[in-house]
Amino acid sequence: MVAVAKLCSRVDALTRDSLADSENKTKMHLAFVEMLQASLWGNQTDLSMFPDLNSEALEEMQARISSGENNSKIVANDTDRIWKIVSQLQGGRVDIVLDNSGFELLQDVLLAHWLVSLGYAQKVVFHSKRIPWYVSDVTNEDFFWLVRAAQTPSLIGTKGISAEDEAALAGLGNQWSQFLANGTWELKDELFWTGPYGFRYLPTEGKDVWDNELTKADLVIFKGDLNYRKLIYDLEWPISTPFVDALGAIATDPRAPAIVALRTSKCDTITGVDPDRAKELFAKQEDWMYSGQYGVIQLSPGRWQGI
């Protein structure tokens, strides 16, 4: 809980600092990079692979993100192209297709908080699962529990937390509750996410979700390994296959939003990796694709072609 409170306090300060100097585009870019990478590496905390994560490990992870130490672990990185889209949004809509509850969900919520607070997104729609596909998948109750726990840190214990960090955490929780109440944030749990179809079939088999939700968004962020596998149809693509080519109709539909994948790689299928880079990785660590130590930040621009 100490690591959670420190993280929330840092993001609260980062958001306030960004608001105070919003004309400084370089500072805004750097803040966005940190927030996006925090959401990416939050996926590394999947307890099915790393069951012994503790507060110290989470603090070390956050330090590596802030210092840029983790950059070499991102094997395909479209962050700058994504920023070009986000920086042009003025009150846009961002959707986040969630993965794991717990620390990863917190990082996703903090990213949404930053986007709304800075005015890039006027609305954020979170897509949870009606039932867990895996045991740790986010359900609506997980999401609401996180907000309640942030509002009232004493619910889960405040031992070791400074008064300043506790106040920042509670303040964020109250803002998130307001976002949900006034419609700035919405939470939806469509059945499609726990159905049998790969995401390339969204325009046909998930027509309600595609037509009425995702195509209304400017940017859709898909979180985690399972969502990534369903994005690329869980096939053994040649490793250099462009990410866009593996997506099918959700990349080519004229109405398609920008699609972003934030994925820590935990299985042996991946796209969009330079062959020379892949060769280096295999020589260094044979199991790099499924070790949970490497990640991708990938973009399909959709109707933002030319970015």
TrEMBL record:
Annotated Damage-control phosphatase ARMT1-like metal-binding domain residues: 9-274
KW Ribosomal protein (keyword) present: no
Gene Ontology CC annotations of this record: nucleus
Protein keywords: Hydrolase, Manganese, Metal-binding
Tree of life domain: Eukaryota
UniProt cross-references to Pfam families, sorted A to Z: ARMT1-like_dom
Enzyme Commission no: 3.1.3.-
Protein name according to UniProt: Sugar phosphate phosphatase
Gene assigned in the entry: HRT2
Keyword Cell inner membrane part of the UniProt annotation: no
Cofactor(s) of this protein: Mn(2+); Ni(2+)
Record GO terms (molecular function): metal ion binding; phosphatase activity
Family, similarity comment: Belongs to the damage-control phosphatase family. Sugar phosphate phosphatase III subfamily.
Biological process, per Gene Ontology: DNA damage response
Catalytic activity: beta-D-fructose 1-phosphate + H2O = D-fructose + phosphate; beta-D-fructose 6-phosphate = dihydroxyacetone + D-glyceraldehyde 3-phosphate
Top-level EC class as recorded in UniProt: hydrolase
Domain comment quoted from the record: Subfamily III proteins have a conserved RTxK motif about 40-50 residues from the C-terminus; the threonine may be replaced by serine or cysteine.
Function: Metal-dependent phosphatase that shows phosphatase activity against several substrates, including fructose-1-phosphate and fructose-6-phosphate. Its preference for fructose-1-phosphate, a strong glycating agent that causes DNA damage rather than a canonical yeast metabolite, suggests a damage-control function in hexose phosphate metabolism.
